[in-house]
From TrEMBL:
One Pfam family in the UniProt entry: GMC_oxred_C
PANTHER family registered for this protein in UniProt: PYRANOSE 2-OXIDASE
Family statement: Belongs to the GMC oxidoreductase family.
Domain of life the protein comes from: Bacteria
Ranges where the Glucose-methanol-choline oxidoreductase C-terminal domain occurs: 159-278
Gene3D superfamilies hit by this protein: FAD/NAD(P)-binding domain
GO molecular function, a single term: oxidoreductase activity, acting on CH-OH group of donors
Entry protein name: Oxidoreductase
Length: 295
């Protein structure tokens, strides 16, 4: 591969059991190792051509890390459904789509969040703390407890250029390859959003008659949402992005990245279906281009 011949001929792998190295050639390469690992592979590839690795010509490789921040919401108790357990019109799981910053209701932060909720009846574990004994204790174990309900918000993290991963050449893995060093944090936009995540949850629960409503404020660090995105984003300009709109690496047109690394923004919903759709679209495009002789 050279800077003028932007095509990758194959991949080199290390057998984890034998430590032997193998090379596989291919006309088309799809890299989907999961967000951070895909970028790690790119950073360790074609370093003889690009100092920062394959896809680094724009300076964006490794930047704009995103995740969904969460663990903010509310809990409470629901009365009036003591005759229901697994069936019937009872408290159940629910989803509340984003409603902030969708119209004229502008907040002091950008974007928004959605809620994921669930409900259940307390079970026999509730009695353990009481250390009861005797017939009354055994009888209590046969009866379900009251209904509890809770919801937590999943909020969008903006793509900040300074939120990034890079290779740590001072720290190597068992195969002698540099590991990723991460510098990722929430900014004020996310911190402001998290206040609404709690306050809105409490307000909605109280409005529908939930009893003993309590705010939930859990700690969060980037990565806990397990929805890592960014670091090899798509774009229209090779000077400001790693991939084009077809998920091709600008620096090597026969290499495609269609996992979370390609994302330009995080939204507030689970991203897996989006990855699947992007992969299906890119695969169809790759086959078409291969048949035309363009790859």
């Amino acid at each position: 591969m050279t800077r003028t011949r932007r095509r990758r001929g194959g991949v080199e792998i290390i057998d984890a059991e034998t430590n032997l190295t193998y090379e596989y050639t291919a006309d088309i390469i799809f890299l989907n190792a999961s967000t951070l690992n895909s970028t790690w592979v790119l950073m360790n590839s074609a370093t003889d051509v690009w100092e920062g690795g394959l896809g680094s010509s724009s300076g964006e490789l490794g930047h704009n890390v995103m995740d969904h921040h969460f663990r903010m919401g509310a809990t409470g108790q629901v009365e009036g459904f003591e005759d229901f357990y697994f069936k019937g019109r009872r408290p159940a799981g629910f989803y509340i789509p984003r409603f902030r910053n969708t119209g004229d209701d502008k907040r002091k932060y950008l974007r928004g969040f959605g809620y994921q909720g669930s409900a259940s009846r307390s079970r026999w574990e509730r009695e353990i703390a009481e250390l009861n004994i005797g017939a009354d204790y055994k009888e209590a174990l046969t009866e379900p407890g009251g209904w509890t309900i809770g919801m937590t918000a999943f909020g969008e993290m903006l793509p900040y250029h300074e939120n990034r991963v890079k290779l740590d050449h001072e720290k190597k893995d068992k195969w002698g390859l540099p590991v990723l060093s991460m510098n990722v944090e929430m900014k004020q936009n996310e911190l402001d959003m998290r206040e609404d995540m709690v306050n809105d949850a409490v307000e909605m629960f109280e409005a529908v008659g939930i009893k003993n409503v309590k705010p939930s404020r859990g700690s969060y660090a980037p990565g806990m949402g397990i929805h890592e995105m960014g670091t090899a984003r798509m774009g229209r300009d090779p000077k400001t992005s790693v991939l084009n709109g077809n998920n091709q690496v600008w620096d090597a047109q026969n290499v495609f990245v269609t996992d979370g690394a390609c994302m330009t923004s995080a939204s507030r919903v689970n991203p897996s279906l989006t990855y699947m759709a992007l992969t299906a679209r890119a695969a169809d495009f790759a086959v078409s281009e291969l048949k035309k002789g363009n790859l």
